[in-house]
Amino acid sequence: MKILIYGTGGVGGYFGGRLAQAGHDVTFIARNAHLKAIKENGLRVNSINGDFVIQPAKATDDISEIERPDLVILGLKSWQIKDAAKKLKSIITEETMILPLQNGADNMEKLQEVISKKNVLAGLCKIYSKKEEPGLINHFYLEPEIIFGEMDNEKSDRALKLNEIFNDAGIKAMVPDDIYKAIWKKFAFIATVSGLGGLTRVGIGKMWQDDYLQEILKKTGLEIQAIAQAKGVDFNEEDVAQLFQFISGQEMTTTASTQRDIMEGRPSELENFNGYIVEQGKKLGIETPVNEFIYRALLPMEKEARRS
């Protein structure tokens, strides 16, 4: 299968690396020093499941060089999706599948504003990984998993075949009965811990250990649940209980990627997380005071990061 990894960071680098390791024709979109290192030394992946190197690795920063892919995996940030979709229009066919794996609850909708609905799959991933240095991806925690499906939840032939390809490459994958529920479960976790983590500058476990901060985390999650249910997503009380249980099991120093972006002064997904909940709350007539405080408190830093 011809696969394009658009965004070779912690997510795209890891999953693309596994697919290339399994023998698929994988091309990586990367930039600057990261691209140079991949071309010179291959794509190096350090993983709790075993280190490996893809050498040589096909990598470029010029999308016009790409052969028409069967599958595009988007490893960009959620706020970069529309620009990527505009560039992809020139190289995809009617049969190309585009799978967004970044955090966020409305990635599919963003893609459909630019690209035909029939090209778009819905998806998410579970992994703790990051670009450690140019050419090096570090997968440091959690068994990686891809959860994806058709936007109408049909168990289509292409979805089942892609699931088989992922599994054969050693990637845990599944096509759930309700992809929207799965997306919102992941979104609720990442949006709950990221913003408050950006404010407190401590790990998820430390936030949960503090009674006051734990209560803020819970209120953040409950506001997200209210928005999900108002949008018709089956994100119920059992799911919320599982969310809080999962947060409670995180290590003291564990941080989410958006929290790290905020702490390091990089543009983040704040607008697509707490900002999205605030925006949807206003549209749906639902109060989201905790998410709004977190969003407003971080917004000046986010604007400064984008200016620089």
From TrEMBL:
Q: List, in alphabetical order, the Gene Ontology terms for molecular function in this entry.
A: 2-dehydropantoate 2-reductase activity
**Which organism's genome codes for this protein?**
Zunongwangia profunda (strain DSM 18752 / CCTCC AB 206139 / SM-A87) (Wangia profunda)
**PANTHER family noted in UniProt:** 2-DEHYDROPANTOATE 2-REDUCTASE (PTHR21708:SF26), PROBABLE 2-DEHYDROPANTOATE 2-REDUCTASE (PTHR21708)
Q: What is its EC number?
A: 1.1.1.169
Q: What does this protein do?
A: Catalyzes the NADPH-dependent reduction of ketopantoate into pantoic acid.
Q: What is the lineage of its organism?
A: Bacteria, Pseudomonadati, Bacteroidota, Flavobacteriia, Flavobacteriales
Domain Ketopantoate reductase N-terminal stretches: 3-152
For biological process, the GO terms are: pantothenate biosynthetic process
Protein name per Swiss-Prot or TrEMBL: 2-dehydropantoate 2-reductase
- Lineage, top-rank taxon, reads Bacteria
Listed A to Z, the keywords are: NADP, Oxidoreductase, Pantothenate biosynthesis
